[in-house]
Each structure stands twice: as structure tokens, then as C-alpha cells.
């Protein structure tokens, strides 16, 4: 059995905000409330998007008409999964139960070794299937 670090991306809608900082704060707070206390092992952060013109990364937040779409990143470690695909399914199931009606997409799956396990660290991205 293998251990994996799985990263999911979610689109979070926030209403009645005027700034990107407010939208980020509200989105992370709302996501945290829905995940805690049962899923306090899930890390929540704001995603990044690359500018199509200059390729510089910036926070995944778009505001129009005081409504924001915030790209959130959820990270979770899955232990003793049969494969990377199995770890993806476990992560989507665990996080998806708390975040009903929130679209989730797998961004990255990385295999890791626990301290004391033998072998080298391996990495597998979603596109490497």
C-alpha cells in the first residue's frame, strides 16, 4: 500500500464583497467552517492562476458585481491507498461530503514515504497517467 498527498481545486462563490482580500477571507472561512472539526487534517489555501499575457502567477479570484469566484486549494494526505487513482477517489469522497454542491477537480497527486518507510520519494502528476 502506498501513501499519497492529494491536491484538489474548488470554485467557491462569495457574494457581497468589494475587494479580493475580503473574498479570499470569506471563502477560506466558509470552507473551514464546513470542513471543521471532523476534517481538520485538510489544508485550505487560495489557488494561483497564471496570467495569459505575462505568465506571472496571481491569486485565483475574480470579482464582478460584488460577487467573487475564488479558486481554493484543498490538500490532504491519504495513507495506504492501492493507487494514485484510489487516493483521488478517497480524497474527493471525504472532502466532497462536507462540500456538497462545490465542484472539485484533482490538481496533483504525489506519492510519499512515511518516516521509517523504505524507498525513494516518487511523484506522479495528474497528467502522467
How would you characterize the overall build of this protein?
The protein is α+β, with helices and mostly antiparallel strands. It has 2 helices and 8 strands; from the N terminus they run βαβββββαββ. The model has no long low-confidence stretch (mean pLDDT about 90).
Short description:
The chain is α+β, with helices and mostly antiparallel strands. It has two helices and eight strands.
List the helices and strands and how they pair.
Elements: E1 2-15, H1 20-35, E2 43-46, E3 48-50, E4 57-59, E5 61-64, E6 67-81, H2 84-98, E7 104-112, E8 124-125
Antiparallel strand pairs: 1-6, 1-7, 2-6, 3-4, 5-6, 7-8
- Order of secondary-structure elements: EHEEEEEHEE
Distance between the termini: 18 Å
Look at the helices and sheets and give the structural class.
alpha+beta
**Looking at the structure, what is the overall shape?**
globular
Poorly predicted runs are none
Radius of gyration: 16 Å
Amino acid at each position: 500500500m502506498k501513501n499519497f498527498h492529494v491536491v484538489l481545486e474548488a470554485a467557491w462563490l462569495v457574494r457581497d464583497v468589494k475587494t479580493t482580500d475580503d473574498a479570499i477571507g470569506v471563502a477560506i472561512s466558509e470552507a473551514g467552517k464546513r470542513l471543521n472539526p471532523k476534517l481538520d487534517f485538510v489544508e485550505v489555501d487560495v489557488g494561483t492562476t497564471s496570467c495569459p499575457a505575462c505568465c506571472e502567477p496571481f491569486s485565483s479570484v475574480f470579482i464582478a458585481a460584488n460577487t467573487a469566484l475564488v479558486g481554493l486549494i484543498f490538500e490532504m494526505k491519504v495513507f495506504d491507498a492501492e493507487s494514485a487513482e484510489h487516493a483521488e477517489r478517497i480524497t474527493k469522497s471525504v472532502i466532497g461530503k462536507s462540500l456538497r454542491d462545490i465542484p472539485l477537480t484533482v490538481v496533483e497527486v504525489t506519492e510519499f514515504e512515511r518516516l521509517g518507510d523504505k524507498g525513494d520519494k516518487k511523484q506522479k502528476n495528474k497528467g502522467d497517467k
